[in-house]
Amino acid sequence: MDAIRVSALREVLTGTGWLEATRDFAWALRSSVSRGPGGPGGAGGLLLVGTEGQEPWHMAAHLDDEAAWSALPQLSPTLVRWRVPPGAPGHLAVDLRRLERARRGETLLVVAPEAAGAPLLERVDGARRTGATVLALETGDAELRGLAHEALTVPVDGAAEEAAPAFDVVQHLVTAAAGEEPPRGRRRVVDRMARLAERLTAPPPLRW
After folding, report:
1. Which residue has the higher pLDDT, 190 or 19?
2. Average pLDDT value for residue range 152-179
3. 183 pLDDT band (50/70/90 cuts)?
4. Mean pLDDT of 59-76
5. Is the dihedral of CA 48, 60, 64, 27 positive or negative?
6. Cys staple from 22: which of 113, 146, 173, 175, with CB 3.0 to 4.6 Å?
7. What kind and span of H or E run contains 136?
8. What is the mean pLDDT of the chain?
């Protein structure tokens, strides 16, 4: 989705609260990866994972574009896959075992247009316990939302469906906003929240 279509979407959604919600989530993501020392496939940076039934290919591609445009290489994600076909190139051959090696300084973004399911929830919980910052874009998964430091819920059923944009539209809005420099005051608030989350989730000091 190009910048013109994103701008048109923003005009349509003005006054609904969704622009603010997607920007807040995107700026939390940007703030988190900005503190990481690495880039795609390396130490630090952003890990991106979907559900077993849906891999977030489009979001991975758009985040990669935003990383280049915003000169923030940490925003370029490592796509973590449930199943890696034989012969897949290295950048597309990262499986779920990568989540077991997640650590402090890394960010895990979970994109879940459906229920995450126990196997993914267990790995997300493990990544959080080892110090990774967890963000979730989901559709009402309370368990996943409970594991995330920052979550954005996109209702997809019942009466809420009329008021909420489609899940793929929200992904576009988030990736576009992640490439933008947040206002200075907003960035300070996000950074303070991130530092507080780090302190609250840090393991207790070792006692010898």
Report:
1. 19
2. 80
3. confident
4. 93
5. negative
6. 173
7. strand 133-138
8. 82
Calpha distance 32→11 (Å, rounded): 28
Nearest to 135 by CA among 93, 193, 203: 193
Instruction: Find, among 102, 159, 95, 173, the residue nearest to 133 by Cα.
Output: 102
Written as one string, the DSSP assignment of 46-100 is: EEEE-BTTB--HHHHHHHHHHHHHTT-GGGSEEEEBS---TT--GGG--BGGGGG
pTM of structure? 0.80
Q: For 30-62, write each residue's pLDDT tens digit.
A: 999 987 655 444 445 899 999 999 999 999 999
Q: Which residues pair with 47 in a beta bridge?
A: 78, 108
Picking from 141, 167, 143, 163, the residue whose alpha carbon sits closest to that of residue 154 is 167
| Mean pLDDT (whole number) for 155-166 | 65
Three-state DSSP state, 111: strand
The contacts found for 127-130 with CB under 8 angstroms, 24 or more apart, are 127/47, 127/99, 127/100, 127/102, 128/201, 130/102, 130/103, 130/104
Contact 113, 167 (CB under 8 A): yes
DSSP-assigned letters across all residues of 141-162: -HHHHHH-SEEEE---STTHHH
**pLDDT tens track for 80-114:** 999 999 999 998 999 999 999 999 999 999 999 99
Yes or no: say if 98 and 78 are a contact pair by the CB < 8 Å rule.
yes
